[in-house]
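Q: How would the structure tokens look for this protein?
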Amino acid sequence: MYKNRRQFPSFLLYFFSFLILFNFCLNLSAAEFSPEELSWIGENSVLEIGTIESGPPFFFESSHGELTGLAVKIVEELSKISGIDFKFVFYDTVEDLFAASDELVFGVSTDYQLNDYTLSSPFLEAETVLFYRQGLNPAELNDKRFALVAGSVLPEDIDEDLLVFVANREESLLAVEQNKADYGYGNSYSIAYYNMKAKYKNLALAPISELKRAYSFGLKSDANPHLLAVLNKSIEKLDPVRMQSIIMAVTSEVMGSYAFDLFMRDNWRLVAIATNLIILVLFLAAFYIWVINRRLKREIVNAQIREEEIRYLNFYDVLTGLPNRRYYEEALVAMDIKENLPLSIIVGDLNGLKISNDAFGHEEGDNLIQRAAKLFKENCPEACSAFRLGGDEFIMLLPQTRAKRAAELMAEMERQSDLDLDGKIPLKISLGYATKTREIQSLFGIIKLAEDMMYKEKMRTSQKIKNGIIADLLEQMFEKGIESKENIEKTKELATALANNLNLFDQDVKDLLMLVDIHDIGKIAVSEEILFKEGPLSPPELAEMHSHIEVGFRIADASNIYSPVAKFILTIREHYDGSGYPQGLRGDEIPLISRIFQIVDAYVQMTSDRPYKQAMSANEAKAELLSLSGKHYDPQLLSTFITLV
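A: Here is the predicted structure in token form.
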């Protein structure tokens, strides 16, 4: 079948084989041991090395069923140099490994601080690789799920509640690929191997240059000192060229194991050609070894590109696209030159972000931040730079801009923000400006002047803005049918009558009526499907409904007008017998104002038409209330109220 094909010259096969063999034989001369060390070697010709079977490429089974891999090859080379026959002993976990009696432990990172162990010279260096699910921002993984190999050391700053335990490194990559975890770390050799094997589609890789690890042997503190000396001298003979030869030999064996079936579908000529090509690749790799320090950097080019993207993202805010504080701090130094005078600064602080997050969730809060960023972008003239410093803070640097122009620009931004009605919360920003006119002036002092103006404006208008936002939210409740103005007035009328009958203080009456106004404002954060659902709510729906109490408390507490009654909002769904929520208060633990409100509000709701229920008569409502006396409602207050209606 292959008669007309040109055969790969066999002499080249022998030539390349000789080069590889010669490369392996570099520095094979025995290490120079002292007479005492040679004597010790003679008495300890076989030594056990404790380790964990970490999988390919460190340990795997060859096509002949024998244990091989990078770890095995390195130890074999050390055996040739030292004359000691090293044998591996495998353990299931790190704890089991260090609890064992073995004098030697393989592959201990020099980063670990082990009290009872001494480390040899490092024999291998590997770069740490971050692997994460595509679509995620690698700079924002703090709240994401971390794939941790069982028995391995937990990295610092990882929340234990976000751990996803897996059996080995391959399963950690698979967990991220299948969206069961979000990210993890591993050494470059293992990650490159499994990525080549599985061809993951949803996985992104990025080398972490600052997290390089060197691997050594760990020796128990009471180990014979000759052992450390013999190991270090043997490791010294493993120069970089020698190590790269070992790595390439193992890599070719791994690649061959996956390509074997494909090769065997053809005859021996195709196998020979493929073998020659592999040898050629290995030769070329050895030839360029002095230029390319790590094979990983050639196999994961996409990861290098991604690393550049990470560096780029370090200077920009992902949510808004504006340069971030790090970029701002560098730009500030570059812009503070004589040629840019007069240099004006406009600073801004977003109002209502907390209320927006509390009432509608962080998605609406993010929308508010993006609208503020758009305002700064669209009003930033040529040569101007706008930045988001974090949270709700923004700043604009305006070179060659006089104070009058900065004031005009700030006034225009205030006008535009008043017209921005795109979201559920109006866009309100407190602004301030200042201008550096002389080179001798401190730019940081100018920024402080702008901030002082902004904070004065914020103090002057903050509560007015918050109260205005709450008024808008209350109006939205009426528009959506969550509450009606008629029911509010009816509740106030009955609440006043009961309060007067009980001879409450004037301030308590005022608090009670204010509570009537704002008690259900937290429902603005509950979906309308749940609010107006007919029939019982599911557990998740019930949990969302119950959350309106705490949301209402946070909204009211943000206002100087309504903050005095915020504490009562937390208790209006408690029951007299302790069966209510959110705190399970009972009896007099529930404030008097809340107990009064509960009765009056229930009566008004029962006697009013609702979308899913027809109104009761007064007698039916009173009978319903009395059936819950001592359970939901204060029996004495209820008896008094019944006489009034």
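The longest strand covers residues 203-220.

The chain has 25 helices and 15 strands.

Upvote if useful.
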